[in-house]
Amino acid sequence: MAEPPVSPAPPPAETPAAAPAAEGGEDGGVSKKAAKKAEAKAKKEAEKARRAAERAATAAASGSAAQTEDLAKDNYGQETHETKLSADLVEVNVKTLGDEHVGKSIKLRAWIQNARMQGAKMAFVELREEGNWSIQGIVAANPEGTPVSRQMVKWVGAINPESFVVVEAKVQKPLEPVKSCRVTNYELHITKCFVHAAAPTVLGMTLAAANRPVANFSDEEVPVEQEVEKLTIASAGETTGTPAASMLTHLDNIVMHKRSAVQQAIADIRGEMKELYRSYLRSHGFKEFEPPCLIGAASEGGANVFRMPYFEKEAFLAQSPQFYKQIEIAGGRKRVFSVGPVFRAENSNTPRHMTEFTGLDMEMEIKDDYREVVHVLEGVLFHIFRNIQERCPEEIALVRSVYPSEEFLLPEPGKEVRLTFAEGQKLLREEGPEEFRNVTDDEDMSTPQEKALGAIIRKKYNTDFYVLDKFPEGARPFYAKEDPANRKVTNAYDLFMRGQEICSGGQRIHDPVELEARIRTKGIDPTSPGIKEYVDIFKQAGVPAHGGGGIGLDRVVAWYLNLPSVHLAAFYPRTPKRLLP
Amino acid sequence: MAEPPVSPAPPPAETPAAAPAAEGGEDGGVSKKAAKKAEAKAKKEAEKARRAAERAATAAASGSAAQTEDLAKDNYGQETHETKLSADLVEVNVKTLGDEHVGKSIKLRAWIQNARMQGAKMAFVELREEGNWSIQGIVAANPEGTPVSRQMVKWVGAINPESFVVVEAKVQKPLEPVKSCRVTNYELHITKCFVHAAAPTVLGMTLAAANRPVANFSDEEVPVEQEVEKLTIASAGETTGTPAASMLTHLDNIVMHKRSAVQQAIADIRGEMKELYRSYLRSHGFKEFEPPCLIGAASEGGANVFRMPYFEKEAFLAQSPQFYKQIEIAGGRKRVFSVGPVFRAENSNTPRHMTEFTGLDMEMEIKDDYREVVHVLEGVLFHIFRNIQERCPEEIALVRSVYPSEEFLLPEPGKEVRLTFAEGQKLLREEGPEEFRNVTDDEDMSTPQEKALGAIIRKKYNTDFYVLDKFPEGARPFYAKEDPANRKVTNAYDLFMRGQEICSGGQRIHDPVELEARIRTKGIDPTSPGIKEYVDIFKQAGVPAHGGGGIGLDRVVAWYLNLPSVHLAAFYPRTPKRLLP
Q: What ipTM does this complex have?
């Protein structure tokens, strides 16, 4: 196994500079093969440098004078647990740097985003703390060689990008605004610099590549040779740009993938959406509970379920917490919600599917009408959409700068769009594309139909978010409550964003006699494993009318931002072909 | 499959009363066998009642007059979607009932907790809305038979406990405080009563039994005959009480288990603790992320890991989110936390173990010293302990009334107890029981040792919560960072409640060279599956020093309340023998 290239040790005297800054710097190095080749080369050079350093050290130790004494030798190098900065330094955050810091010596812990020499006596570095919060650092040799020597400048200018450093520096105002960093009105005049953790000489994927839109989402491995060729062509055509990498390359270089500002912005938006979901429901009387992932029986016929040996038994992974949400209601909780993983063993390799995703589920007693549930689901999603824009305006703008999208349109309060399924089909017949002229009210909608309907609704009602209610009986599972006034349809609904389903729900049958009858109508044996346990819940004691819904968090994030794939919204996307990292 | 007994239809005339109130009512019926027998009997009676009702209806329809006309016949019965209460009723919650409601007609949806006749013209019911919020209802026949007839009284008095009803009633002040209900200063004079969802004639477990402390936590099935016998003996010896049921009976009757006030109180406390965990970390700059459950390689040697077929591969269930927390830090997030399920395929059948439990995990960059992490972990737990008492005083008191426990002792701020592992062993040697006189500083502690130390610390420092730091090298996994000043110990710690570990954590090795060396020292091949992927993270780019910890939520809840088993703290406990419900 290849040892990771270590950051160069500070040369004790005028030894040749250690490994140079990453070749290709910010505009290449996304293929494994190229990275390996470069790494080998870098290793050779590092080894050369190490030997030179050893020679020089030996020379110094044996008394033969080095060419120039390095008066700054204690001010840079590899950090050890004995490294000391000046006492009483203020540790700052790049984000909160202000005029009150100007002229003061501060301490900063950050990643070297870029380092370059400017002649022999000066080096510029970009120091990044979090997201895209970067600031320019300058290290300039003092004629006296203290605190900064020419050797120190050379060493700092050669630090590998994405190494983590600790610097001591004086905050100053630059002569003109710094264009290359997010912080434009301050710069850091570095007096000490220690490498806390070194990056390899060549990164598997550069930060610039990580910040480009993902080039393709195929889970199929592209042969390395072919990919290298593709990259070369892309680079040649686009001299100033950075070639985009595939999702596979991003996942193989997960650390750099996550260091990209765009992924951090997506993660922040996701986190806030989740919190908005919880806080809204909590403030509306919902209690959080935790459904299990490991279950003893596969419900809904056992299709698309992961199964595994479990001691002397077999266990399954829950496809939905619905059964458990309903037990909570049966168990006397008025309103419950959960946030957690759900699993689908579906061999679907599309930008909309994952085998593990995060479900935002809720269930509640119905007092008079199942539309009470629809209103809560609408309410929580409106709450998310209206507040996320206020909480994360910069993050949303940043994501849009990489993945351009039209603004997510919401209706005015009171003008929410709620159509019945039949009304939706009518719109498709009357205003949709040619091929949907003959859609009927009792067949389910296909994904292309849903998208076409989304486009019609956006044009007609100026909204990207709407509800489709009263799905036909045949399109819903056995537990869906039929509309007592029209048994051809159910009290079940889907919620859509940009023409794509993000939430499915409905009123459930709470009467065990009605439930068993309907299970039989659906051609299922009510005594089969999973089904029997489900029906039994409603026989244990009287269970009030209730309904709920399940929202796919990954989809909400992805479709809100109009990302090309739900995989970009997930922290660790799981697909039939991908379980790592 | 047995049909569930349906609530008796309102007799159109003086037919014999339908099924009587649950036999054994509040003090029996916890065994399956007894329940089945009783259910069969109830079915027969319900069928008899149905036939009688049919006869009477036919008689009425054919014009032959019923003995007495029931003038209240529209005011009670099985609710249908055409059932109507009076217009403009105020729907109330039992909890918020006040003097402003006295004299008014209100609507209430609730469970019948108990129903009994008082002579032929009056019935008392206990109506429970949520938790133990119950109120007394009275239904008294009016001489004119309207709105309440003798038939109606009889019918209401015979409703099966745990049926869900909708009532219309007038709020009144009782002549003297009602002792049997939580609401003592109001009662409801019922004018309409409809059964929305009927409970079976005999419950699998009564509410009273569900509210008793669980009798035993063995996962082994006790033969039904034996259990019935045991119950009979218990009932005989304890004439006024209700026999306690085993955990298996509770889980087989999950609906009644969850309807018990004690389980609802535990669930509320758990929910608030979880929220306190999140809000504290969010306010301290931590970002939430979601680690995957499905992973491609089993870390830590692959022991105790669930494995399953995954398309053409094999997948494992994550035992801990640690690998992923560290990727987040490597990926540039300063501080992260997660809340989610973790899995252990450990065949441990103890009150401290489950195969699936909820992990509260966190990880953060270390600036100067790993104790920064200890302080955050301490901080978040103090935050939980100090606030839960304020948020849930009634729930805690309620749990204590069923599972008595001493108050959970906390140190004064500034007097937190942090001992080194060596100091802990010294205390055990000097002040512990005889058998721990010779414990040494380089062996790990056993559970009995931990408990003994907890008792010493409680006595000495007046706290049930403390930290043990600097665990010996041999007691910690390969990723634990050694103390640079003393390589025999690690910068790793455990946190304890009442002498039991609830959190384990430490500083991780962030340098890949150091990490590989230590993996080899531990006798592990650094290129083995799971390990290689782990080490590679630190080679992708420079990763700053970091540390974290994982808290077991189930244990925090259980040990805070001093519950006899962690299974009581879980929503759906998973053990090697139990996957249902």
A: 0.88
